[in-house]
Amino acid sequence: MIDAHCHLNFTEYDDDRDEVLFRARQVGVKNFLVIGTSLETSEKALALAKKEKDIAAVVGVHPTEIEHLPEHWVSQLKTLALDPEVVAIGEIGLDYYHTQETAVHKKQQEIFVTQLEIAHEVGKPVQIHNRHAGEDLMQILNEHSQILLNQPGMLHCFASSLDVLRQALDLGFYIGIDGNVTYPGLAKGESVTIPEIVRTTPLERIITETDSPYLTPIPYRGSRNEPQHVILVAAEIARIKGVSAQEVEEQVHKNVSTLFGI
Ligand SMILES: [Zn+2]
Ligand SMILES: [Zn+2]
Fold it and tell me: Which residue from 57, 52, 108 is spatially nearest to 82, judged by alpha carbons?
């Protein structure tokens, strides 16, 4: 089992990070991708990857963290991105949920493109975050398809229309599924349920993740999430697809190794 997107670098785990890792390993989680959202949390992700051999780091600036970037953030991020423990650039992307301001959206788009260019330069795939910005996101990705890798990356915690999903699959992206696959009904502002996304996406393109500390699956919804719960995500995918949990696990391992080389 693999948790391909979690934030064990966050302060939420400062008191019990080792226990959290232990619990996940106990239930069979073999690899963790720890994701940065700023320069600071990216550095922490890298430090964890250097310490634990089953952790790999992903470094990048999240669209809601772009306000206080230091002057030389591009060269700082590039230096981190070149480290062999770093397997992808992320999480990067667009998040229109918190603001309707066009100026902020434009700024997010600019920073996103800069980070796509960094990924191109260092030759690593991307982990993309999208919230309520699917159309703009696909427009940017289609416009920049020439700088994307053949296996360009993963749209983490996918939530968008089936049209956006088809465009993403056409570009070669993998689709990240989280604990919210267990939530009933439609999320606010979305038109497609996560189980519908899972049904439409071939297993060869699905990757399991938790986005810990967020998106805790049922029956633990409401408490801090942990990578051990990725088994609940895989079980739900298996149920929806009508296959065994082991088949999901084996295919996700193949997908992650193809995409991230681990
Ligand atoms: Zn995200
Ligand atoms: Zn995340």
Answer: 57
- What integer best gives the mean pLDDT of the chain? 97
Residue 68: is its pLDDT beyond 90? no
Report how far residue 231's alpha carbon sits from residue 220's, in angstroms, rounded to the nearest whole number.
13
Residue 237 above 90 pLDDT? yes
3-state secondary structure of 139: helix
Domains of the chain by range and CATH?
2-260 (3.20.20.140)
122-168 pLDDT per residue, tens = 999 999 999 999 999 999 999 999 999 999 999 999 999 999 999 99
Q: Ligand 2 mean position to 178 CA, how many Å? A: 10
- Rounded to the nearest angstrom, the distance between the alpha carbon of 145 and the centre of ligand 2 is 24
Taking the CA of 34 as reference, the closest ligand is 2
**b or e along 119-144 (b: 16 or more beta carbons within 10 Å of the residue's beta carbon)?**
bbebebbbbbbbbbbbebbbebbeee
DSSP 43-60: HHHHHHHHH-TTEEEEE-
- Angle value at C-alpha 231, between 228 and 234, nearest 5 degrees: 145
> How does strand 153-155 pair with strand 55-59?
unpaired
